Each structure stands twice: as structure tokens, then as C-alpha cells.
Amino acid sequence: MYLSSLSSVARRSCATLSRGTRPPPTTLLTTSTLNTTTPLASVFRQKHASNQQTRSSSHSPMGTPPTNPRKKVTIGTLRAMHKRREPITMITAHDFPSAHVADAAGMDMVLVGDSLAMVALGMEDTSEVLLEEMLLHCRSVARATRAAFTIGDLPMGSYEIAPEQALETAIRFVKEGRMQGIKLEGGKEMAPTIAKITRAGIPVLGHVGLTPQRQNALGGFRVQGKTSDGAMKVLEDALAIQEAGCFAMVLEAVPAEVASIITEKLSVPTIGIGAGNGCSGQVLVQVDMTGNFPPGRFLPKFVKKYGDVWSESLRAIETYRDEVKSRQYPAPEHTYPIPKDELEAFAETVKDV
Predict the structure, then answer these.
(1) What dihedral angle (degrees, nearest 10) is formed by the CA atoms of 237, 243, 246, 249?
(2) pLDDT digits (tens, 9 = 90+) for 6-60
(3) Catalytic residue (one of 252, 257, 323, 348)
(4) Which residue of 95, 200, 250, 335 shows the fewest CB atoms closer than 10 Å?
(5) Where is the composition biased (Low complexity) (predicted)?
(6) Strand, coil or helix: what is 180?
């Protein structure tokens, strides 16, 4: 039906040309006329309406657009928030659904953290995740975010060798991963690398304090800055990467009082995770804070569990299992009808099959 309609329009256009008369502009098959009253536009509208009315498969994963969509969060937005001391919200996401809900909930920033190694890929720690795996998940997250500022976490081994390697990786995160900025771990020693990336026009979110990719050198996941010398080192690292061009930085596992002092000494925002309420904003791993894990799993001290997604999912799936076993599902309201005469004709036809 659809193809024959297009063919009919094309034949009429050719016939007009063969008579030596230029067709009026409204009958030309050009993209500029698809929103007018041309026969082709009519075909497209009818086809689209038919799809909306009769589609039997799942609809667009984006669902219904919000009534009042948020303005896009930009670097300028984040700087303005910091200037007026408005807390900045950030959360991790690792795929389309987790990014979609984070964006819908109004997060200012969405981080595709290398924590996806554990929460999405079942790995032991962040050092295992590969660059290609991070890029795959970045693309998935980017498809869902419409307002939040998106950041991709450079995985271990993709940026430490040289600033040139780091820039190449960062460019891939923007071009292939469709991220708007990148995050990398490290203090003073990473300043030249950060400067190299920011000079290329790519926003960098720094990360000081506890740096999980270096946990083996730190003796494990240990709080940083618990002594005067330790706190001074965190501050020196923060000042160095600020000078190198970071637009903001994550402060992880630092005593709250130390993080507050460091935050006041900086001119860019700090995003705390296990660093108290004196930071410019906060970030949590989404799987942790939504409770999407089985009972008994260890949680860091700084995590607040805001939901119980695991229990709700378990309940729903167990109910589904039971209804399938008992043939309660699918019920008649979950099936598609067929006219009685067509069913009878079909039954008659297959009698001898």
C-alpha cells in the first residue's frame, strides 16, 4: 500500500514532465515539500498515523516527551550554580534505562563511571573494564540524556602513559561515546594531561582524594587526608588540577571538615562522595542508592539507600513466574482478537493438515 502510493505519485510526476509541462512546486518529490499538502506528504502522514494506531510492539524507549522539558545543562549552567552556591547533583548511569530515569529525575550531571565494571558487567574492580566497553555504555547513556551534562570516566590504562594518549582517548569519548566531558583520576602528576585535554576544548572533571583506580598503591579503599600532611596533599592536588583547567573535581573519601576547607580554597566546584556536606555537590552510584542489589551486600559508609529496587523487581518477577506456571498469564486482555468467521475458516482449513 505504502510503496504503491509512492509509485502512483511518481508516475503522475513523470506523466506531467512527458507532456512538456513543469509540475507545480507542490507536486515535486523534495524534502522541502514533505510538510505541505502534497500527495507524498499525505502518504507519509497516513502511514505515520497508521503506525501509531496499530503498532503492536513496544513503543519508543524514550516514551512520552515531558510536558515542560528542562533546559540543557552546560558548563555555564554549572558555573552559575556554583557562583550562587546552589548544590550540584550528579549520579552514575551505565545504560539507557538508568540514564533515562536519572535525566527525568532532574540530575544536573550524569556520570558514566567506571564503576559499571562491577554494577553492570560483574567484574571485581574498575581496573578490569576496557576502553571499548566504556564507549559502548557511554553511547547508550547519551541516547537517553536530554538535559543533564554527561561525563565519561576514562578507564585505567587509557590516559596514564602520556598526555597525547589521554587526549586521543578523550576525543573518542566525545566523538564515539557522545559525552560532553570526561573524568580522570589523579592530582599534581596529571596536571599536564588535564591541560592538554582542556586546551583541545574538552571539559575535564578531576578526581582527587581516594582514587579507586590506584587502590593497590593506596593500600586499598582508604580514607585520604586524615592527617595534616595528608589533607595538605589533597589540597595541593586539587589546586594543581584546578590550575590545569578542570571545570570541577570529585573529592572522594575525605573527612568532611577537610573537604569543606578545600572547597572554600577553590574557585571551581567540588563534587563529594564520602566527603561530607560542605562540597559544592554530591555524586552517588545509582545502583547503590536505589538499592538495586541483594541483601547482605557491603555498602560504603557514605551511601544512603533511597530505595529498594531489588526487592520490588524480585517480587514482580516471582509473581510473573507464578502466573505463567498457573496459566493466569497471559489473560484474555493481554491477547489479540481474530474475527470469528476468520477463525472458523482457519480451523476448517487445518483439519486435514
Answers:
(1) 30
(2) 444 444 444 444 444 444 444 344 444 444 444 444 444 444 444 444 455 555 6
(3) 252
(4) 335
(5) 16-40
(6) coil
